[in-house]
Amino acid sequence: MFKILKKQELSPGIFHYDIEAPRVAKKARAGQFIVLRVNEEGERIPLTIADFDREAGTITLIFQVVGASTQLLASKNEGESILDFVGPLGQPSEISENMGTIVCIGGGIGVAPVYPIARAMHEAGNKVISILGAKTRDILIFEDRMRAISDEVLIATDDGSYGVKGFVTTALQQLVDRGEKIDQVTAIGPGVMMRSVAEATRPLGIKTIVSLNPVMVDGTGMCGGCRVQVGDEMKFACVDGPEFDGHLVDFDSLMSRSRMFRPQEAQARDHICN
Ligand code: FES
Q1: Distance 238 CA to ligand 1 centre (A)
Q2: Are strands 152-157 and 127-134 parallel, antiparallel or unpaired?
């Protein structure tokens, strides 16, 4: 069993959990994910690692309540435990010295999984410019953490309540317009956001990495549930990813597959709520 050592609701429906999982924390690296199951009836939930503390033996997860399973997870309290917690899974981010200027983009709760990547980029000596996007200021997360490890932070909100009014691509365009030399963009967020970022960087020839979170079942390359078209190849996000070249990902099929199970998700949510 894996104990919830800290639970905090960052904004309505968005939760921060620190989970006691020393063996996972010991091996975790930026860009990887875990799969958890709340109880025996619970379905498996893949979540990208938002932080890890090897000494404390904890993994930080940020998640948003979007369906029955995340609702079940959110019903757990500090001191209670989760049945299964498997990881770290997936390939870690490719990070080294002398990569240059890296623009780390997080949209919505995607800011959380981009944080350990930005931190590792910073620790390797690269220049990190972070762009954080949210619908409104009050649901922006991890701003302090991102400021602590970034050379510069730009904020974009849909309603203009904080930072530039617009999307993360609006802030990215500002960097391009001022002549910033960008060596790589790493973007994590909703599919539509990652696609927009990839389309913005494609004509500029800027290497763009996205982290995908498709439907997953086993998380170990056995079921094919997480398959994604990347260029000419079919990849499994759980073992080949979750990071891929954003210019090669077929976002249309990825997003339509994610929408396929909405009726079942709504049914499961109604079942849990009633
Ligand atoms: Fe089953 Fe990736 S989740 S192959």
Answers
A1: 6
A2: parallel
pLDDT tens, residue by residue, 36-67: 999 988 888 999 999 999 999 999 999 999 88
Instruction: Please state the domain extents for the chain.
Output: 2-89, 93-206
Spans of the chain, pLDDT less than 50: none
**Ligand 1 atom nearest 237 alpha carbon:** 2
Q: Which atom of ligand 1 is nearest to the CA of 236?
A: 2
Q: CATH code for 2-89?
A: 2.40.30.10
What is each CA distance from 116 to 77, 121, 228, 237, in whole angstroms?
25, 8, 24, 19
Find the 102 Cα to ligand 1 centroid distance in Å. Answer: 29
> What residue owns the CA closest to ligand 1's atom 4?
221
Fold of 93-206: Rossmann fold (3.40.50)
Q: What is the ipTM of this complex?
A: 0.98
Which of 213, 223, 244 maximizes ligand 1 atoms within 8 Å of its Cβ, making it the mutation to test the pocket?
223
- Given a contact cutoff of 8 angstroms between Cβ atoms, the answer to whether 89 and 118 are in contact is no
